[in-house]
Amino acid sequence: MPGRGERSDGRGSGERSDGRGSGRFAPSPSADLHIGNLRTAVLAWLFARSSGRRFLIRVEDLDDRTFSDVAARQLADLSAIGVLSDEPPEYQSAHADRYDSVIAELAGRGLVYECYCSRKDILSAPRAPHAPEGAYPGTCRDREPPADPARPPALRLRTDTFTYTVTDLLHGEFTGVVDDFVLRRGDGVTAYNLAVVVDDAAQRVDQVVRGDDLLSSSPRQAYLAALLGYPPVTYAHVPLVLNAEGKRLAKRDGAVTLAEIGVAPALRRIADSLGYRSTTLAGMLTEFDPAGLPHEPWVYRPV
Ligand code: GLU
């Protein structure tokens, strides 16, 4: 079974004393979890437990569009469906020192530069012929800071490749863009790509299960992890949940949160979507087979 036997032992300094790696679910508390998020959380738990890993929940609350009352409801909803963290959930907002010291390390290696570009500058800048679409064009890479900058700079990583390949349990080999991505935004907020890599390593996470909207971020993250000497992680990017119109499920679709659906019906719908008869997590674990997971998005229609 994929995942089984993939442990962090024998991988150098990242080794756990008990030899067990972790899986995790890492929601951003910007809105209540909907049934699609809950399904991803259930899958993350199933992947971790079926491969003998611990399971952790991490609150990704760095952005100023995240809220502590939403985080509390997300954690309560996860507990209600049985997705429990083996350790008290960690909050990214408590880890500023961790991110600062990694950025300082990268800067010490000459791998960080200041970027004064606005979004508009980036979109209108000429792109080198070999640079992939959507990549930062490298405008500030080797230029002196402007004498009178209009805004505080973002910090970017100086990379030496354009693409990087990761292996995903559902998608196989995936090659995606690695540009000089942002490590710290101009407003001082640590960027998601840096925080997620640093925290996964700090928490000995060696299995990342999340929505496949983040598949395209995984090459950047795996590249950064390798640059920092962190052990590689196993990825499983699971299909998103769509509404009846085939669009990403959203709160306005109605009856999508646990409060609206109810615990037992939500678990039944999630189990159903995965083809399981059991509607408890323990029961689903006995039926779980990563190789048999649907690769198509789940279309959710409120009843
Ligand atoms: N916090 C991210 C989100 O809610 C997920 C991060 C991850 O799983 O790597 O979209």
Kindly describe this structure.
This protein is of the alpha/beta class. The chain has one domain: 3-Layer(aba) Sandwich (Rossmann fold). Helix content is 30%, strand content 17%. A five-stranded parallel sheet has the order 3-2-1-9-10. A three-stranded antiparallel sheet has the order 4-5-8. Helix 5 packs across helix 6. The chain is globular. The N terminus is likely disordered. It binds glutamic acid (GLU). Glutamic acid binds next to loops.
Mean pLDDT: 91
Integer count of domains: 1
The number of helices is: 9
Q: Tell me the number of strands.
A: 12
Per CATH, the class reads Alpha Beta
Strand order of the largest sheet: 3-2-1-9-10
Radius of gyration, in angstroms, nearest whole number: 20 Å
| Class inferred from helices and paired strands | alpha/beta
Q: CATH homologous superfamily, by name?
A: HUPs
Morphology: globular
Residue ranges: pLDDT <50 for 5 or more in a row?
1-17
Sheet-strand content, in percent, reads: 15-25%
What's the CATH architecture?
A: 3-Layer(aba) Sandwich
The span between the termini is: 35 Å
Helix content: 25-40%
Compounds present?
A: glutamic acid
What is the N-to-C order of secondary-structure elements (H for helix, E for strand)? Answer: EHEHEHEHEEEEHEHEEHHHE
Largest sheet: 5 strands, parallel
Query: At the third CATH level, what is the topology name?
Result: Rossmann fold
